[in-house]
Fold this protein.
Amino acid sequence: MKTALMLIVLLCIATVSCQQSDSIPPKEDVEALYQRFHGKYKVVSSTSSEPLDVNLDGASSTNLLQEILELNNYGAFLELRVKSVYGSVFLFSQFWPEQYINTYSGSTQWNGRDTLSYNPTHLVNYANQAGPYRFSFIDDLSQIVVTAVGESDSIRWVKPESVFIEANDRLRVINKRRIYTRQGVKEVTITTLYERFTIVT
């Protein structure tokens, strides 16, 4: 009798535990989100909303992997941190090759805001940089919502307009950016597709 009663109690506890774990919404299940999304993502493709000549070779293209060679290395990556040793963190960082233009006159670095006409004497340098943002998932895990921690910079380390989760958990990130080109500074929409290459951050 005691054994049967003990089995019933254990069965009830197991059932309640399962129901409680099943009731966690997918967007709040930190361990499952960590296994599925935490890590670093490399660039698969990157396209601009109009043809650009960013590498200043005289030919314009929407394929930014051809126009910005720095996008082809692992320094230009996206990082999602779902948790750390201290608990859940949900940090989004998109390391992008920011342009720094040496104009050799007065203020030597283009700040990204001013209008700048093409000049063959200008020296273009790149630095892969990112500003960390908070993020969350929508209910069906089809999209990531990125929010600024403080005031977001609209020129450097820009916050994405949107982030969509596609097949095989690839991330499609849409940004608006100002880019120095052979046609001068252009403001364009850039769509970049990323895939995870490591869970290590």
About this structure: Helices lie at 2-22, 30-37, 64-67. The radius of gyration is 23 Å. The chain has three helices and eleven strands.
